[in-house]
């Protein structure tokens, strides 16, 4: 059974800007850009979170965990009433994981190890280190399950993606965006593929899914979320959400209710 705790305002601060342990955070809570000498795992046992770096933004609903290697500047934003768990990974263990930020699926064993590590005081010497070793083993064998939205560098592409970020429901075609930022449709299409390694349509879909996760986590209905994020009808939204996240919006919300008990 998932563990539950009473809400608190912020996680315990271990000093030096490194937050460790667990706490309930309110919807919209943010941690400003910072970095650590250790690696960091952040898991929302309930709720959802977004981790942003210069390489883009990663979103993790409650069945995924974010990983940030040492010395990567990053920020966090939390969606819904979030049961956040933060785990610092010593540098000697970081080499077991990927050398760039990422998101991984959370297996039942990984979830229980994360909850135990962040819930319970260490009763025997070395117990937390052994739990951390289990977590690292689980992550080392896990495939990335990334909801990654990469950042642009070309000025024209940045301008186009900024327009979409400001209004994810914006219905503009690629040609219309091109006219707004002074680039041809063909140029923008090429930039999306060469800089961001995905099509314009795929990038906008991931952006909208990021916003959809935040809306669903905050209690918005599936239909309301579909409209707010730019889908013409709930069915197309449900199909897109299921393809990207791996479950329907309704099942995702049901899981949030179970974890939040």
TrEMBL record:
Residues 158-255 form the HTH araC/xylS-type domain. It holds the Pfam family HTH_18. InterPro entries: Homeodomain-like_sf, HTH_AraC, RmlC_Cupin_sf. CDD domains: cupin_NimR-like_N. Coiled coil: none annotated. Keywords: Transcription, Transcription regulation. This is Helix-turn-helix transcriptional regulator. It comes from Streptomyces griseoaurantiacus. The lineage of its organism: Bacteria, Bacillati, Actinomycetota, Actinomycetes, Kitasatosporales.
């Amino acid at each position: 059974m998932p563990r539950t705790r009473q809400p608190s305002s912020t996680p315990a601060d271990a000093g030096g800007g490194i937050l460790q342990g667990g706490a309930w955070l309110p919807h919209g809570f943010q941690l400003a850009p910072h970095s650590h000498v250790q690696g960091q795992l952040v898991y929302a046992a309930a709720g959802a979170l977004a981790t942003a770096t210069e390489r883009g933004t990663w979103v993790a609903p409650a069945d995924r965990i974010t990983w940030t290697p040492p010395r990567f500047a990053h920020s966090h934003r939390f969606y819904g009433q979030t049961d956040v768990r933060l785990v610092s990974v010593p540098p000697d263990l970081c080499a077991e994981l990927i050398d760039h930020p990422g998101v991984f699926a959370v297996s039942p064993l990984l979830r229980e190890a994360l909850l135990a590590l962040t819930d319970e005081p260490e009763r025997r010497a070395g117990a937390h280190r052994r739990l951390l070793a289990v977590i690292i083993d689980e992550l080392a064998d896990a495939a990335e399950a990334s909801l990654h939205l990469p950042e642009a560098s070309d000025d024209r592409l940045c301008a186009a993606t900024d327009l979409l970020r400001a209004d994810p429901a914006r219905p503009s075609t690629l040609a219309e965006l091109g006219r707004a930022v002074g680039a041809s449709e063909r140029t923008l299409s090429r930039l999306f593929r060469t800089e961001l390694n995905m099509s314009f349509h795929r990038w906008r879909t991931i952006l909208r899914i990021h916003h959809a996760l935040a809306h669903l986590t905050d209690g918005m209905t599936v239909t309301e979320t579909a409209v707010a994020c730019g889908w013409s009808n709930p069915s197309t939204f449900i199909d897109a959400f299921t393809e990207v996240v791996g479950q329907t919006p309704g099942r995702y919300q049901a899981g949030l209710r179970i974890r939040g008990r």
